[in-house]
Design a protein that fits this description.
The complex is a heterotrimer of chains A (about 775), B (about 475) and C (about 200).
Chain A lengths: L1 H12 L13 E6 L2 E6 L4 H8 L22 E6 L2 E6 L10 E3 L3 H16 L15 H9 L17 E2 L4 E3 L9 H9 L5 E4 L6 E4 L11 H6 L5 E3 L12 E6 L8 E7 L2 E7 L18 H5 L14 E4 L2 E4 L2 H19 L4 E5 L5 H14 L4 E2 L18 H5 L3 E5 L3 H4 L1 H13 L3 E6 L11 E4 L5 H10 L1 H8 L3 E5 L9 H13 L4 E4 L6 H9 L7 H9 L5 E5 L3 H4 L3 H10 L2 E6 L11 E4 L8 E4 L5 E4 L12 H11 L40 E4 L9 H4 L2 H4 L7 E3 L1 H7 L6 E5 L4 E8 L7 E3 L21 E6 L2
Parallel strand pairs in A: 1-5, 16-17, 16-23, 18-19, 18-21, 19-20, 21-22, 23-24, 24-25, 28-32, 29-31
Antiparallel strand pairs in A: 1-2, 3-4, 3-5, 6-7, 7-10, 8-9, 11-12, 12-13, 14-15, 14-25, 26-27, 28-33, 29-32, 30-31, 30-33
Helix pairs in contact in A: 3-4, 8-20, 9-16, 9-20, 13-15, 17-19
Chain B lengths: L31 H6 L4 H7 L3 H11 L11 H5 L10 E6 L9 H7 L1 H15 L3 E6 L4 H16 L15 E6 L9 H8 L24 E5 H5 L1 H14 L8 E8 L5 E6 L5 H6 L13 E5 L19 H4 L10 E6 L4 H15 L5 H18 L5 H14 L29 H15 L1 H9 L13
Parallel strand pairs in B: 1-2, 1-4, 2-3, 5-8
Antiparallel strand pairs in B: 5-6, 7-8
Chain C lengths: L5 H11 L9 H12 L4 H11 L3 H8 L13 E6 L2 H5 L2 H12 L12 E6 L11 E3 L2 E3 L4 H12 L48
Parallel strand pairs in C: 1-2
Antiparallel strand pairs in C: 1-3, 3-4
Helix pairs in contact in C: 1-2, 2-3, 3-4, 6-7
Classes of the chains: A alpha/beta (about 775), B alpha/beta (about 475), C alpha+beta (about 200).
The structure holds flavin mononucleotide (FMN), iron/sulfur cluster (SF4) and FE2/S2 (inorganic) cluster (FES).
The site of flavin mononucleotide (FMN) has 24 residues of chain B, from α4 and β4.
Chain lengths: ~775, ~475, ~200
């Protein structure tokens, strides 16, 4: 709530004298171990002590979750009316002038007592425990413990580690019942699939039999477990803390920009952990320390043996390894020839979202030098870069807004940690969510209003909503943030732009949090790889398909796997005269290249990336690059040299990302497409992503590859009845152009009259049905005869 | 007597003034017919004939001390609810399971309508718009009798919409538990009623009167507390305070069990009757069995510090029993004669609390079982002096004594001060140590003997799992 | 068959309707399922999760906290012998050993014929009638080993079938709230209204 109030005040504060000293009404002072330290009204003693640098031992307390006062370890002495009282500092709020002592004999005795009791049933298998060496219980037993245990009784025994999901193991003998994992699962992730069971001395954490802890966020429970009770399959027995090396970096799996600690052992990545800096708004990480499992575990892909490690050039029809100089020479020649024969317009550059800002800058400089205007960092699956010139909102702005309007993808599937932040805002901070969606999303059940629309009808839906007195009254309260992204790959993005304009008309001073999902897509678009004029990826591919492209450069892009209109992508790559691809893995597209250059992957190079909210954070190198791989910027610089241009840079320093000024637009330009009426193709198609799909990072990570569901068509139960099929049966799904066969899933979250087919899953490829020129995609669903 | 229900098991009337047990002698005391024939629902009528606030005042003036253990005056508790926040709920605590406690079950089995009428008066007076009557899971008969009574009362228009044609409407919902002592603790009771594991909530800040069931203001009252209300609205606060003492007016039900000649439940005059009256009086327990000597007694439920015979003359008055170092709790008195094996007696209580720990707080979850293990070992005759020290060490981790230990002159062991300081959320933790503390400090020699002389009693007589 | 049968689903729905939040009905409905099957089955817990709108893990979490819920079959007659202080002082141990001897099982065990389960129980709120025990939560007071012996024989011979239903059945009288009398369970977040009778006037 408090964030809400303050943010509600901001308009009033405008025009205030900047010099004026603002006295924080929430600032108070407590006396901690004899010194006066600052604290904030309503915060807990333990939090204030943390900031003051006096560590109070604790196990159940976690700054990002509601305190439960369960382990009783954090007891301190507070001066009360009737003398000193023992209180648990994770449950007791500070008060002006409060006298707190954390080191008296009383406190020491109490803390030692609790620790002895916690250790009573804890197996002493630290030497073989993943947590050994970085274990809060082990550490605090040394720092605050009684020394040796006098517990001579038989300890509790349970079956040694049981797999509670595909990624997480549980060892109940080590568990100290701090309620962290269970609290995280129910309160933060909203997946109460693990719970305390039984009672008293037999209390234990369990899943329901045969109902695994299948949460997108399960890895966080491993990170916050204060002992080695929860361990992650990808990390078990991989390394010991003392031979871990770590650096702070940014996760590039999606565009949220989660701060991570990248950890390696013997020059190979072994673990990623979320980084949090609570209580310091300036240094606070956007992810609050949380990560999604995909981001946490797909570092395995970097270690994958199938990585490209040497440059390759196509000689009589097949790619063969060669030297960098050979490869670069060939690439340079290809580009020179293209330009000299058919001009710079015959060269197209697709991709850039996988690159760091510095790579993007280098490639943009090269393109400028050569006069190449055909470039696009997106793959015809996002929204125009224009959305960055709307008034921007940060993730914190959204999480503390009065109203958040969702006009985009299912965040739980595409930007998972943003989903957590907004879920927290809606469930704990009274932020009201107004959602526009053509199928239920992870936030639907937390939305104050969820407005369903059929693909193509979002404009009408928005107009109706803003006309609703209750909703417009809510918008009138001000401080509205619109989360704007691409919800459906089977419809024209123009509908979303029109819908946004309709919102902008109705809501003055709204701000926008753009949610394009690919790693550094915002950086790529802002640092120089946005389409110039109108040469976006679709235009480039169409030109290529029509034989107008002499040289197609793929910067970590795989059009054949990612462009919705797969047929267009195939024709384009087939008809492009030459292809130069920079990639980390051989992909459906890069194997077609004439020159294939291996580049450094995540944690193999330094640089910076820009997240959804436009803030720039660092990428750090933790391990040496695979084989002869180089960072993408180096390739650009060397090609430039060979093409007779000096970009004037020989290191990253010359490539620092350029700052972008905040947007001034209020509406977006649209082409005003409209949705045609239904014909015999009765179901309107929604195509969007699941968290686990055939993405390179996922399929090349052994722990994740099995988690992608297989392709299916999700239908509303009423439609399933109407069609006369049933869940699990296969149906033929056809458009005017072709048809595919998919199994049926029943899904009440899908609107009647629509069909949802998740994108890029193992099985029949829904993209066969999509046409880039179709405003919407209507399908016919029939039983197989 | 072998236990058939109809038998007046446990209750002994006598010719003392009766407030809550007046109908117990009738075989059909639980029927609406009998209830109406004996002033039934007149208290409700009287109440509805006055503004709700007057009724609240009346109850306040009567100072009905809570009978669930804490002894907090009901009328005052109702006044703690934040104004203007509705709905407010009434949760009736019928989870009676404190060792030695036996009264609420009788009140529910024998006079369910009296309880229902009490609930209605409370709801009317305090503006509570829904009542949940939580009965302990193991009490099948009480559940049947209350269910039947509620069905009768609904049919006759005493409960539900526009009661007796008035503007007062309230539902009473029968709810029942499933076996967990700690659920008797009021915040755990609320958790349980919400369908959760019955673990106590932290308080403060969650005093149920402010934030209770579903986060709304909630009054939790004990069955006996509420059973007093019909009499009070019928006869007035003055008549009530005329009985007993100023600080402990009215009567209260006590259960005397253990080594007495006539163990039973008695409705006694509050604040006046002494333990001596109770144990030796003709109309009460008629002396210690086989003319044995009294060794010690537990004055107020399993967690209360024990008393020695020299405290026999204390009256049933909190303001005197408290300073004497114990509490009256839920009116549960357990008597031990000279033949009692003290360490074993302590074990039977510690085992109870260890078994009933909800598992939330480390000290209670781990410490309770640890105490039980050590004590069992000692009772079985396999204990060592180190075990005695360890009992105190573990105890001190649950309810810290003055530091360094105020060592008892009778043995180098500490006496944990009462009321207990605690490192736990609720009293179950300290309660696991309470009996050990009493036994150790009052009868150190019995432990000393037990840890030196091995196998003094046969293991089979221990009865632990 | 171990999901709730239709009759019980109907009862469950009625119970749920009495609470401002469905989850509150969890324990009563768990009893209902135990009455139907003699113990709480996994299918029942899944079914109940659907009925009250929580996950099966949450149902298990709550159910396993309470001792009366059994997760595998127990005897037709569960004999709970109280072992807390008052009963212990007056011979609870002898009773337990008698039962263990006669039935040839240890506390916590069930006889091969599935007739009897013995449990060491904690205080049953009948301390003045010590030593006492319960058979399927029906009391027996001031028991002697001889009386226990006879009791077990009677139970085995079906003599007490009238008084003591098979394990799982608790109260045989259910509360019924007539629709025309019911005030109904408003959700706590319903508009904050002071009860009508709090208007400073007498209700009658
Ligand atoms: C561990 C524990 C167990 C309790 N058990 C009961 C109980 O079985 N019945 C009861 O009425 N109160 C019990 N209480 C007291 C309740 O918390 C609460 O104070 C009481 O029900 C309030 O009602 P009253 O004010 O009418 O006494 C227990 C308290 C604790 C700490
Ligand atoms: S003291 Fe014991 S019973 Fe009470 S809350 Fe803590 S763990 Fe639960
Ligand atoms: S950290 Fe405070 S009780 Fe666990």
């Amino acid at each position: 709530m408090s964030n809400q109030d303050t943010s509600a005040e901001t308009p009033a504060e405008e025009g205030q004298d900047v010099q004026e000293v603002v006295i924080d009404p929430n600032a108070i002072t407590i006396n901690l171990n004899g010194r006066d330290v600052p604290a904030r009204k309503g915060e807990l003693i333990i939090a204030a002590a943390d900031r003051a640098g006096d560590f109070i031992p604790r196990f159940c307390y976690h700054p990002r979750m509601k305190a439960v006062g369960m382990c009783r370890q954090c007891m301190v002495e507070v001066e009360g009316p009737r003398g000193p009282m023992m209180v648990v500092s994770c449950m007791t709020p500070v008060a002006e002038g409060q006298v707190v002592r954390t080191e008296t004999e009383q406190v020491k005795r109490a803390q030692e007592g609790i620790l002895e009791l916690l250790l009573a049933n804890h197996p002493l298998d630290c030497p073989v425990c993943d947590k050994g060496g970085e274990c809060p219980l082990q550490d605090q037993a040394f720092s605050h413990g009684p020394g040796e245990s006098r517990y001579v009784e038989e300890k509790r025994h349970y079956e040694k580690p049981i797999a509670i999901s595909d990624l997480v193991y549980l060892d109940r003998e080590r568990c100290i019942l701090c309620d962290r994992c269970t609290r995280f699962a129910s309160d933060v992730a909203g997946d109460p699939l693990i719970s305390f069971t039984h009672r008293g001395n037999n209390t234990q954490v369990l899943t329901f039999p045969d109902e695994p802890f299948a949460s997108y966020f399960s890895g966080n429970t491993v990170q916050i477990c204060p002992v080695g009770a929860l361990t992650a399959k990808p990390y078990r027995f991989k390394a010991r803390p003392w031979d871990l090396e770590e650096t702070e970096s940014t996760c590039t799996t999606c565009a949220v920009g989660c701060r991570v600690s990248v950890q390696s052992s013997r020059d190979s990545l072994v673990r990623l952990q979320g980084v949090d800096v609570p209580g310091d708004p300036d240094r606070e990480s956007v992810n609050w320390g949380w990560l999604c499992d995909r981001g946490r575990f797909n570092f395995e892909s970097v270690n994958n043996a199938d990585r490209l490690s040497n440059p390759m050039v196509k000689t009589d029809g097949k790619l063969t390894a060669t030297s960098w100089s050979q490869a670069l020479e060939t690439a340079a020649r290809t580009i020179r020839l293209a330009i000299s024969s058919r001009g710079a317009d015959s060269v197209g550059i697709i991709g850039g979202a996988r690159l760091a800002n510095e790579d993007v800058r280098a490639w943009a400089m090269l393109a400028d030098a050569l006069g190449i205007t055909r470039r696009d960092a997106q793959l015809d699956d996002g929204l125009p870069a224009e959305i960055f010139s709307l008034p921007q909102a940060s993730v914190n702005d959204a999480a503390s807004a009065t109203t958040v309007v969702l006009l985009g993808p299912d965040l739980k599937e595409e930007l998972p940690v943003l989903h957590l932040r907004l879920r927290d805002a809606a469930t704990k901070r009274g932020v009201r969510i107004v959602e526009f969606a053509s199928k239920a999303t992870g936030l639907t059940r937390h939305a104050w209003k969820s407005v369903p629309y059929e693909p193509g009808n979002q404009v009408a839906a928005v107009r109706a909503a803003v006309a609703d007195p209750e909703i417009s009254a809510q918008f009138a309260k001000g401080n509205v943030v619109v989360v704007l992204g691409r919800a459906n790959l089977a419809e024209s993005s123009d509908f979303t732009l029109q819908a946004f304009n309709a919102l902008a008309d109705a809501i003055p001073a709204l701000r926008v949090l753009p949610v394009l999902r690919r790693g550094n897509v915002r950086g790529a678009l802002e640092q120089g790889l946005a389409p110039q004029s109108d040469g976006d990826t679709r235009d480039i591919l169409e030109a290529a398909a029509d034989g107008h492209i002499e040289c197609l450069v793929l910067l970590g892009a795989d059009p054949i796997s990612d462009v919705p209109d797969v047929d267009l992508a195939r024709r384009a790559l087939a008809n492009a005269r030459n292809i130069i691809a920079l990639d980390t893995f051989p992909s459906a597209s890069s194997v077609l290249a004439d020159v294939l250059l291996p580049v450094a992957a995540f944690a193999e190079r330094t640089g910076s990336v820009t997240n959804i909210e436009g803030s720039i954070s660092c990428l750090s190198q933790r391990v040496t690059a695979r084989g002869t791989s180089r960072p993408d910027w180096m390739v650009a610089v060397e090609l430039a040299e060979r093409l007779g241009h000096d970009l004037g840079v020989d290191s990253l320093t010359g490539l620092a990302a350029q700052s972008v000024e905040n947007g001034t637009r209020t509406t977006l330009s649209t082409s005003g497409v409209t949705a045609p009426d239904r014909n015999s193709y009765a179901l309107r198609l929604v195509v969007s992503r699941k968290m686990y799909d055939k993405a390179v990072g996922t399929v090349t990570s052994p722990s994740l590859v099995g988690l992608a569901p297989s392709a299916a068509i999700h239908l509303n139960p009423r439609d399933i009845e109407a069609i006369g099929t049933s869940a699990g049966r296969e149906v033929r799904v056809s458009t005017s152009r072709t048809s595919i066969v998919l199994p049926v899933r029943a899904d009440p979250g899908v609107l009647k009259g629509t069909a949802w087919v998740p994108f890029n899953l193992p099985g029949a490829d829904v993209r066969e049905l999509l046409g880039a020129d179709q405003p919407v995609t209507d399908v016919r669903v029939e039983n197989l005869s | 007597m072998t236990g058939s229900y109809t038998h007046a098991a446990g209750f002994y009337a006598g010719d003392r003034p009766k407030i809550v047990t007046s109908r117990f002698e009738y075989a059909d005391s639980f029927t609406l017919e009998r209830y109406l024939a004996t002033d039934g629902y007149k208290g409700l009528r009287a109440a509805l004939g006055r503004p709700a606030n007057d009724v609240h005042e009346e109850v306040k003036n009567a100072t009905v001390l809570g009978r669930g253990g804490a002894g907090f005056p009901a009328g005052t508790k109702w006044g703690l609810m934040p104004p203007g926040n509705f709905p407010r709920y009434l949760v009736v605590n019928g989870d009676e399971s404190e060792p030695g406690t036996y009264k609420d079950r009788l009140l529910m089995e024998r006079d369910p309508h009296q309880l229902i009428e009490g609930c209605l008066i409370a709801c009317y007076a305090a503006g509570l718009s829904r009542c949940f009557l939580y009965i302990r899971g193991e009490m099948a008969l009480a559940q049947e009798r209350v269910a039947a009574a509620l069905n009768e009362a609904y049919a006759a228009g005493y409960v539900g919409r526009n009661i007796l044609g008035s503007s007062f409407s309230v539902d009473i919902v029968l709810h029942w538990g499933a076996g967990a002592y700690v659920v008797g603790e009021e915040t755990a009771l609320i958790e349980s009623l919400e369908g959760n594991r019955g673990m106590p909530r932290l308080k403060p800040p969650y005093f149920p009167a402010a934030i209770g069931l579903y986060g709304q203001p909630t009054i939790v009252n004990n069955v006996e507390t509420l059973a007093n209300l019909p009499w009070i609205t019928r006869n007035g606060a003055e008549a009530y305070t005329a009985i007993g003492t100023k600080t402990s007016p009215g009567t209260r039900m006590v259960a005397v069990s253990g080594h007495v000649n006539r163990p039973g439940v008695y409705e006694i005059i509050n604040g006046v009757t002494t333990f001596r009256d109770l144990f030796y009086g003709e109309e009460f327990c008629q002396g210690i069995r086989n003319g044995n000597k009294l060794k010690a007694f537990v004055p107020g439920g399993g967690s209360a510090p024990w008393f020695l015979p020299d405290q026999l003359d204390l009256p049933f008055e909190a303001s005197q029993v408290g300073p004497a170092g114990s509490m009256l709790g839920s009116g549960a008195i357990m008597v031990m004669d000279e033949t009692t094996d003290i360490p074993y007696a302590a074990l039977t209580l510690t085992r109870f609390y260890a078994h009933e720990s909800c598992g939330k707080c480390t000290p209670c979850r781990e410490g309770g079982t640890w105490l039980e293990r050590i004590l069992t070992r000692i009772v079985e005759g396999n204990g060592t002096d180190a075990d005695l020290e360890q009992l105190v060490e573990v105890g001190t981790s649950i309810c810290p004594g003055d530091f360094p230990h105020a060592s008892s002159e009778r043995l180098g062991l500490s006496a944990v001060p009462f009321p207990y300081k605690m490192t736990t959320i609720c009293f179950v933790g300290p309660s696991a140590y309470a009996p050990v503390n009493s036994a150790l400090t009052l009868f150190p020699e019995e432990f000393a003997a037990r840890v030196t002389k091995r196998n003094r009693i046969p293991v089979t007589a221990v009865g632990g799992e | 068959m171990s999901r709730l049968n239709d009759a019980n689903v109907a009862i469950a729905q009625e119970i749920i309707s009495r609470y401002p939040r469905p989850k509150s009905a969890l324990i009563p409905i768990l009893h209902l399922s135990q009455e139907q099957n003699g113990y709480v089955t996994e299918d029942a817990m899944k079914h109940i999760a659907e009925l009250v709108g929580v996950t099966p893990a949450e149902v298990l979490g709550t159910a396993s906290f309470y001792e009366m819920f059994k997760f595998e079959p127990v005897g037709k007659y569960v004999i709970n012998i109280c072992g807390t202080m008052s009963c212990a002082l007056l011979g609870a141990d002898e009773l337990l050993h008698k039962a263990e001897h006669k039935l040839g099982i240890k506390a916590g065990g069930t006889t091969a014929d599935g007739m009897f389960t013995i449990e060491h129980a904690e205080c049953q709120a009948a301390c003045t009638e010590a030593p006492c025990l319960q058979v399927n939560y029906r009391y027996r007071f001031r028991m002697t080993p001889a009386q226990l012996d006879a009791l077990i024989d009677d139970l085995a011979a079906g003599k007490l079938a009238e008084e003591i239903p098979p394990h799982g059945t608790l109260a045989r009288v259910r509360q019924h709230i007539p629709a025309d009398k019911s005030v109904g369970a408003l959700p706590p977040e319903a508009p904050n209204q002071e009860p009508t009778w709090m208007n400073g006037k007498a209700a009658l």
